[in-house]
TrEMBL record, chain A:
Localization annotation: Cell membrane; Membrane
Gene Ontology molecular function: cytochrome-c oxidase activity
One of the GO BP terms on file: aerobic electron transport chain
PROSITE patterns recorded: COX3
Parts of the chain that traverse the membrane: 56-77, 126-144, 164-186, 207-228
Organism whose genome encodes this protein: Mycoplana azooxidifex
Protein name as it appears in the record: Cytochrome c oxidase subunit 3
Keyword Ribosomal protein part of the UniProt annotation: no
Automatic annotation (TrEMBL), chain B:
Record's bilayer topology term: Multi-pass membrane protein
Source organism, top-level taxon: Bacteria
Classification lineage: Bacteria, Pseudomonadati, Pseudomonadota, Alphaproteobacteria, Hyphomicrobiales
Name used for this protein in its record: Cytochrome c oxidase subunit 1
Residue ranges constituting the Cytochrome oxidase subunit I profile domain according to the UniProt record: 22-559
Listed GO MF terms: cytochrome-c oxidase activity; heme binding
Primary localization class, coarse: membrane
Length: 240, 590
């Protein structure tokens, strides 16, 4: 569970950093009256808009998704350290898929830039490109699975393949879920004549989610390809 | 910085932009597929109480079997295991978690922080309906072939999915896991709401340190749950693969009934780690809201500000953080490295420090307070006593050397029922007696409430105190009957009968409580807007029960903390949070 504890340390650090500005040391029983939007210790302009709730919500959600994948990784690492472990070979197609997901992430970043500039038509192109590349990624993952199955590495073959299918499947499901949001945003682009603030926010949220899923995928790829092996060995030395 | 404002100065309520409220147009969207947090809260609570009654009946049946083995012909060993499993799972997850976070969280958070509704009302609605589906799936397992799973509420593999365990190779375990997965997805939607509403939905002047401790408790528990439930999710998904697809995440090479199973190489201990990484924070996910609520009940009904508010907040947060590094104290008997056990014993005992701090602060709040022995106060006092009692045996069990011999006895059953069963349930009752007037506009009947309280409180002790003794003499748990065993004295059998009779009585008293809930809805005394003369915002709503959108045309503005009771010089013995102005004789450090 070392990986999960490290993850929680990061979360705890974020919470401590955030709460430093929240006046947790104040003495509310002495302080009567109201002057700021956020309370004592807050130096921001009270009328300055806060971060939109949707963005905070996405941030919290990504932390939860991060916890989910970290727990899968924790389980994987615990299983790796036992005797009978044979790593599953990583099909070369996975590297192609990684490139496609990277391109998808770039498209979404482009979409975000266009949304900020307010160029609706370019935004639409970027969104569609992002959607197409995401679809290509998921298809590519399915083909990678089929290659593995054809090579005899089935789901129940051994622990390594089981982990591979379940974790990549879980990542794929999250990409599919993100694509639902992408489709909804793309339809919003079609419905709106100009780039409204609401639309801009939606595009931005999609982009954040996509970058996050790319980062998760890179970690997972490092894990499966064994690049993480040296780190794992190091961690094991730390424990034992 | 906060400026002390003069008595007459009023600040306009701007700061928070209004949530775009969804306005329901039909009966269906108003009461069934409602996006109003208050309606969702009531839906959550009713569903949780309904499924909780099922678990209560199961506990009756188990107690009858323990006192009079064989008295109920249908209750064989398999049924007994199934009842244990469902009783535990329902009570911990589908009742306590859902009621505290889904019920009280939904009702109280928006009202207490001065919001019109949760920030994501649609996700909030989905959260309830997913919970409802999860409950349906769980109930369906009673009617599936082979019945519900009998794996124990911890669902330990490999036995959970072996054919000799009830439901292991039938639908029982599958439905259980699917139900948990749905529950977790639903909870995550709700949890995002509770957390982000506290972060972003607070009204003007409501700083974090002005929030009532109830909100602090629910908020911290929500954040914990958001990070703890994924562990259960991962465990459930992997076990579902083991059961349905034949993978071997948790299944070692195993020979069952002379037959080599196709599994091999999995680690049952891995499941235990994942399960308890969720399971221990779960204890505090239930306890922290209870801590928060009980602080507010005590302060309100003793007419005194909570003692050491800052310490209380910090203690809640510290308990929440520490509870993530104690999970392996549930696994002392799994054959772990002794140093590992030492580490977890230490962290476990450290949690006692902030917890004891809270108990001291509650006691000091009561000290020289103007204590009104109302029903909420009675339940709050009962909670403190019970929590201390249950917590003390926790210190015993937190030590490896004591835990190992006691681990598989009724002592553990008595301990966690005291600390995690009875104590939070007492808070739930107290909270319902406290907030029912706000939810319905009518008071609960006092006489019925008194009878309910004394039977529940004393009865719980008569059930669980003898059970400690039964455990200490070595009676094992998870056995449907102990029969004639040399080390079990005759007195244990008598005690078992006594415990069972008490359990039946206490259970029956809950029916009186439910009757009171229904009866007072129509015949209760009219409550008015603020019957307890409390300071927090939910009592200051323009209508009772609060209307859609909670606050009428303008959001409230908060000028003070939540505990201005008996302020010297103030015209009344409480000052609502949204009342401006200071009072001349107020002293520093009051």
């Amino acid at each position: 569970m070392t990986a999960m504890l490290l993850f929680l340390c990061v979360i705890a650090a974020i919470i401590i950093w955030w709460s430093a500005g929240q006046g947790l040391m104040s003495k509310p029983w002495l302080e009567v009256g109201v002057a700021t939007a956020h309370g004592p210790g807050d130096r921001r302009d009270p009328d300055q808009p806060k971060l939109p709730a949707q963005k905070i919500g996405l941030g919290v959600f990504l932390a939860v998704v991060g916890a989910l994948f970290t727990l899968f990784i924790s389980a994987y690492l615990m299983r790796v350290s036992t005797q009978d472990w044979w790593a599953t070979p990583v099909p070369r197609l996975l590297y192609v898929n990684t490139g496609i997901l990277f391109a998808s992430s770039l498209c979404l970043h482009w979409a975000k830039v266009e949304a900020v500039r307010g160029r609706r038509d370019q935004l639409r192109t970027a969104m569609l490109a992002g959607l197409a590349t995401a679809l290509a990624f998921v298809t590519g993952q399915v083909f990678a699975w089929r290659q593995l199955v054809a090579a005899g590495y089935t789901l129940t073959d051994d622990a390594s393949t089981s982990f591979f299918y379940v974790i990549t499947g879980m990542h794929g499901l999250h990409i599919l879920g993100g694509m639902v949001a992408l489709v909804r945003t793309a339809r919003l682009v079609r419905a709106e004549a100009i780039v409204t603030p609401r639309l801009r926010l939606s595009v931005e949220l999609c982009a954040i989610y996509w970058h996050f899923m790319l980062a998760v995928w890179l970690v997972l790829l490092a894990l499966f390809a064994g690049w993480a092996g040296s780190i794992v060995a190091f961690c094991q030395q730390l424990i034992t | 910085m906060v400026e002390a404002s003069g008595a007459g100065e009023v600040i306009p309520p701007a700061a928070v932009e209004d949530v775009e409220l969804y306005h329901p147009h039909s009966w269906w969207t108003r009461y069934v597929f409602s996006q109003d947090a208050k309606v969702i809260a009531i839906q959550y609570s009713c569903t949780a109480i309904a499924i909780g009654m099922v678990a209560l009946v199961l506990s009756w049946l188990m107690r009858i079997q323990l006192a009079f083995p064989g008295a109920l012909a249908f209750l064989d060993a398999e049924r007994y295991f199934q009842f244990i499993t469902m009783h535990g799972m329902i009570m911990v997850i589908y009742l306590l978690t859902a009621l505290f976070l889904g019920g009280f969280g939904n009702y109280l958070i928006p009202l207490m922080v001065g919001a019109r509704d949760m920030v994501f009302p649609y996700a909030n609605m989905l959260s309830y309906w997913l919970y409802f589906v999860a409950v349906l799936v769980l109930v369906a397992s009673f009617f599936a072939s082979g019945g519900p799973t009998g794996a124990g509420w911890t669902l330990y593999p490999p036995q959970a999915i072996l054919s000799n365990t009830p439901g292991g190779q039938d639908w029982g375990i599958v439905l259980m896991l699917v139900s948990l997965i749905i529950f977790i997805i639903g909870f995550t939607m709700g949890g995002l709401n509770y957390a982000v509403t506290v972060l972003q939905g607070r009204t003007r002047g409501m700083t974090l340190m002005r929030m009532p401790l109830t909100v602090w408790g629910i908020f911290t528990a929500t954040v914990m749950a958001l990070f703890a439930f994924p562990a259960l999710f991962v465990a459930c998904v992997m076990m579902l693969f083991d059961r349905l697809a034949g993978t071997s995440f948790f299944m070692p090479a195993i020979v069952e009934m002379g037959e080599q199973l196709k599994h091999g190489g999995g680690s049952p201990i891995l499941f235990q780690h994942l399960f308890w990484f969720f399971g221990h924070p779960e204890v505090y996910i239930v306890a922290l809201p209870a801590f928060g609520i009980v602080s507010d009940l005590i302060s309100t009904h003793a007419r005194k500000n909570i003692f050491g508010y800052r310490m209380m907040v910090w203690a809640i947060v510290i308990i929440g953080a520490l509870s993530f590094v104690v999970w392996a104290h549930h696994m002392y008997v799994s054959g772990m490295n002794p140093y590992f056990g030492f580490f977890f014993a230490t962290t476990t005992l450290i949690i006692a420090v902030p917890t004891a701090l809270k108990v001291y602060n509650w006691t000091l709040t009561l000290w020289r307070g103007n204590i009104h022995l109302t029903l909420p106060m009675l339940f709050a006092l009962a909670f403190i006593v019970t929590f201390v009692n249950g917590g003390l045996t926790g210190l015993f069990l937190g030590n490896v050397v004591v835990d190992v011999p006691l681990s598989d006895t009724m002592f553990v059953v008595a301990h966690f029922h005291m600390v995690m069963g009875v104590a939070p349930i007492l808070v739930i009752f107290g909270a319902i007696y406290h907030w029912y007037p706000k939810i319905t506009g009518r008071m609960l009947n006092e006489g019925m409430g008194q009878v309910h309280f004394w039977i529940t409180f004393l009865g719980a002790y008569l059930i669980f105190f003898p059970m400690h003794y039964v455990g200490l003499v070595g009676v094992p748990r998870r056995y449907n009957e102990i029969g004639e065993t040399s080390f079990v004295p005759e007195s244990v059998h008598d005690l078992n009968v006594f415990i069972t009779v008490m359990a039946l009585v206490v259970g029956a008293a809950q029916i009186l409580f439910l009757f009171n809930l229904a009866w007072s809805l129509r015949h209760g005394r009219d409550a008015g807007g603020n019957p307890w003369r409390a300071t927090t915002l939910e009592w200051q709503t323009p209508q009772t029960p609060p209307a859609h959108g909670n606050w009428g045309r303008e959001l409230p503005v908060v000028y003070r903390w939540a505990y201005d009771y008996s302020v010297p010089g103030a015209p009344e013995d409480f000052i609502p949070q949204n009342q401006p102005g200071t009072f001349p004789t107020r002293e520093a450090g009051a």
